[in-house]
Design a protein that fits this description.
Number of helices: 2
Strand order of the largest sheet: 1-2-3-4-5
Strand content: 15-25%
Number of strands: 5
Radius of gyration: 18 Å
Structural class: alpha+beta
Shape: globular
Order of helices and strands: HEEEEEH
């Protein structure tokens, strides 16, 4: 009689999809809330793909995203796993610290007061 060692849990290792962690979403949604209050952004979308997670920011729902905040864990040791991509596909900022990368978008909140 053969005894097979099967476990009810899947193999630990490569995840099937990349997603934002709760603390990462907290930082992103904090910035999103401030930009909504300033009237700059109106909607967002989250995508969890096999090799990256994307937080897309929209001015209006039916438009292309103004910015994409991407998380690519495979680039952690090379260019940094977080990046902010503009509407034209240009990478605006890249790095391993999410708060530092998002500073490029916080400049939009700073306005001169008359």
């Amino acid at each position: 009689m053969n005894v097979q060692n099967t476990t009810p849990f899947p193999k630990q290792g490569i995840p099937e999809q990349v997603a934002f962690h709760r603390t990462e979403l907290g930082v992103i949604l904090s910035l999103y809330g401030r930009m909504v209050a300033a009237g700059e952004w109106r909607d967002y979308g989250i995508s969890s793909l096999r090799d990256m997670a994307v937080f897309s920011v929209f001015r209006r729902t039916a438009e292309n995203p103004l910015y994409r905040i991407e998380k690519r864990p495979k680039l952690r040791n090379k260019q940094g796993q977080y990046s902010v991509v503009g509407i034209d596909g240009q990478v605006l900022k890249r790095g391993n610290d999410l708060k530092t990368v998002l500073r490029v978008l916080e400049r939009k909140l700073i306005r001169a007061i008359d």
